[in-house]
Task: inverse folding
């Protein structure tokens, strides 16, 4: 799929809800609605990826000020640990009725 290619072009969706959580930070998660249809038509892959990246960055910023569960220390977020620059969008998975789970890869 190309960055300029429309996502969800003919499925009748006007928005999707994305779910993001980060391992080791119980209680920190996000369920956000992202519009996928504009007056110009379906948004493209680059636009969707940018919207998701902004939401991931918000979740990570919440995590940065919290303690992490000891068994998840490799996923610690904050100075000297992981940042948004270590995270890559691998995909999104439809988990139920228009709710999509963000699938991320972490590279250190």
Result:
């Amino acid at each position: 799929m190309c960055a300029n290619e429309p996502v969800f072009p003919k499925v009748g969706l006007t928005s999707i809800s994305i779910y993001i959580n980060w391992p080791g930070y119980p209680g920190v998660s996000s369920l956000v609605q992202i519009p996928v249809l504009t007056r110009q038509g379906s948004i493209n892959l680059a636009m969707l990826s940018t919207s998701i990246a902004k939401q991931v960055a918000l979740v990570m910023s919440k995590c940065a000020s919290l303690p992490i569960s000891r068994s998840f220390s490799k996923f610690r977020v904050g100075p000297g640990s992981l940042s948004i620059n270590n995270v890559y969008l691998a995909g999104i998975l439809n988990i139920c009725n228009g709710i999509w789970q963000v699938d991320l890869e972490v590279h250190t």
About this structure: The CA atoms of residues 20 and 30 lie 5 Å apart. The beta strands are 15-21, 29-35, 37-38, 41-42, 87-96, 99-106. The longest helix spans residues 45-64. The mean pLDDT is 91.
